[in-house]
Every structure is written in C-alpha cells, then in structure tokens.
Amino acid sequence: MTETATRSRYQLTFVVLAVAAAAYSLLQSLVSPVLPLLETSLHTSQSTVTWVLTAYLLSASVFTPILGRIGDMIGKEKVLVGVLVALAVGSVLAALATSISVMIVARAIQGVGGGVIPLAFGIIRDEFPREKVAGAVGVIAALLAVGGGLGLVLAGPIVNALDYHWLFWIPGIVVAVAAVATHLVVPESPVRSPGRVSWTAAVLLSAWLVALLVAVSEAPSWGWGSVSVVGLLVASVVLAAAWGAVELRSAQPLVDMRMMRVPAVWTTNLVALLFGAGLYSVFAFLPEFVQTPSIAGYGFSASITESGLIVLPMSVAMFVFGVLSGPLSARFGAKTVLIAGSAVSIPSFAIMAFAHGAIWEISLAMVLLGIGFGMAFSAMSNIIVDAVPSNQTGVASGMNANIRTIGGSIGAAVMASVVTSNALPSRLPKESGYTSGFGMLAAVMLLATLAGFLIPNLRKAGRDAHQREQAELAHPELALVAAGTVVGDESE
How far is CA 8 from CA 3, 5, 132, 133, 446, in A? Predict the structure, then answer.
C-alpha cells in the first residue's frame, strides 16, 4: 500500500473513531436538561431520576476497563463494533421506556459505550504513525469533553422539534451507522495481548461503587447515621480495599495499579477524579437550577432550550481553550496549564453557589468553567502521554478518562444528596441546597488545584534527560562514569 493510501486509511479510521466518541460523549449529558421532564413523565422523584445519569456513569466506570482488556485480547475492531451495537440497543430501549426502572436499565446498557474510550485510544496507538498518536489521542479526549457540553445545548431543540424520546433515537441511529462504518473501515489490529479478564476485580469494582453511590444517594431519606447508610459506606471501603489488593496481585489487572504508582500518573489521575466530579455535577444540576420556576424564590424559569443556551458559552470556551491548551503547554508546560485551568474553575463554582440574581452571572460562570476545563482536560492528556512509554499511551489515557468517569458518578451522587437534602413544599430543592452543592464543588476544584502542584515537572525532567544524552554523546566517558555510579549504588 502506498504512503498516500496508508495515510487516507488512518485518517478515515480517525473520522469513524471521532464519530463513535462524540456519540458516546453526547449521551453522557443529552438527558441532563430533560431530567425534570423525565421526572414528571416517568412519575418519579428528583433523587431517583438522577440515577438516569448516575447509572450511565457507573456502568461506564465498570465496563471501560473490562472492554479495553477484551479488545487487547481478541481484537479491538470487533469489540468496538460490539460496544457500538450495545450502545445502539440501550438507546432504543431508552427511547421506548415507559417507567423509570426501564429507563435506568437502558442507561446502564448505554454505559457499555464507555469501552469506546480505551478501544479508540488502542486503535490509534496500533494503526497511526507514531508522530500522530499524541495529537489524535488529544483530539479524542477533547471530543469527549466538548461533546458532553454540546449535549446540554442540543437537548432543547430536539425536544421542542420532536420529543424527549428522540434524544435516544437520534444517537441510536448515529451509533448504528458508526458500528457499520467501524466494521467496514477500521482495520483489525494484529496486536494482541494474551491474558484473561480479572472478573473478581470487575465484580469488586462494581460492588464498591454501587455501595458508595447508593449510600450517598439515599442518605437524605434514610439518614446519614442510619444503619443502612453507615453499613454501605463501610462495605464500600472494605470492597475498595479488596479490589485494590486483587488488582495489585493480578498479572492482567483491569486498572494497572503499578502504573498508578508512577508519580505523574497517579497525581494526574487524582486531578481527573476531582474534575470528573465537578463536570458531571454541572451537567446534572445546572440545567435543573436554571429551569426552576422563579416563584420558588430562585431559578430563572428557563425552558430546556434556554437552559442549553445558558450552558453554550461553556462548550464554546472549552473547545477554544482545549485547542489552545497544546500551544500553551508547549510554551509553559502542561503542568502549569493544568494548574491554571483548575484555578480558573474555582470562581465559576463560587459564582454558581452565591450569584443567583441574573442570567449574565451564570453565563460568566460558564465561560470561566469552559476556559478552565478546556485547558485542563487537554493538559491532562499531554501529561499522561509524556509520562508513560509510547506503547502504554492508550492504556494510560483510557485509565485517566475512566477515572474521570468514576469521579463523575461519585460527584453526581453526592451532589444529588446535598441538593435534595431539604425540599420546599412544592418538592423543589431549597436554594440553600444548590448553594451548598456548588460551594462544595468550588472546594473540590481547590483540591484539584493543590493536587496539580504534586505533579512532577516532566518538561524539566525531559529537558535534563536530553541534556544528559547530548553530553554523553559528546563525552562517552561520562556515560561510563554514570554507569559505574549506578553499579556502585546498587552494590551498596
């Protein structure tokens, strides 16, 4: 095959992967603006309807590493086709759902689509020219972030023109087309990693996440000091510890705890966990806040479309600064850009917590949040790519995205608990619930900023290594001295 044909092939593959990632990302947030509508249509409560989002994130948190491992074992292309088919089936079931229980099950099936992340990163690693891998991974990572914001914007027009069922029919059709295109266009990678899936780890991961999320979701009604809530929290800690121990002993772990020990990896993943909590909480609760009838003493009586337009500045700013993050990282270092993005996000949550008088205040918060998150998400991808060997880029990037999803599922559940802990006679949350919730997220982003300082300065480390390499090439005796020093150190 000629170089031009090869290039066209991987560019076409990238288009298909981008469509699949965008469809998965849209489904993360497309339903968020219509949660109040689903609450009414499916005859449920606000705390229960939040599980429409949480079930999706929880399922994605579990299936993402499992499907990534299966793809490495039997072939990424065929597994990606299966993932997209499952995503389409879940979309059809959600479109036909007439009860909250069926809707939650459908969303859990859609969460299987989380496998798109490691599979796409793995295909890029296997099929793309080495110099194109980092850029392609960064673009897919940006699509995952921006697509979530666009879902909030597109929900209103779709519901107004059709109805909320089409929030699932349209992505279902797109995903079905992407599945066919994947089968026809994406080559099956010859790269295989023999091994097995650690089902014990998968069960333990599911168990501790479910125990934690049920506890924080039901605490307002059961009571934080109740036997059920305390028991579930204790169980989640014990199960999480057991999961970690199993992963450390496993030859083929779902989440590579050894890689997590790399300083640049675990610190960046900690930031990703906190960012996930902030992002998905905004997806779940800002539309509900601005849609609240002003007669409640707060809110803006916004329609679904208007709530999407209020969030639109976040999506635009996230895209623009996600693109700018690369050049900024090249000039100032990805760590500096990540810390700056985290810091910019703090005042946005502070505004959402306390400034409830005018739409422009919320719009300003959205701009700041888009700037911060756009800078940070791309910088995280760059740090991970720089921190691991090239053959681990896909695994490490997928793990970072998955940890962000886990943070999102935990953050959305905790936010639901805080916001719905006190309700007005109309069953709407009190304004103080949103103040406490968004204030909590401001504190979360402060922690993310502080955690960013723990990330090693890879730019400096890389420059020092390059200088040592050049010096050893010019003066070979230096390499011998260095080798002797290492041997001496080991002998001691």
Answer: 9, 5, 13, 15, 44
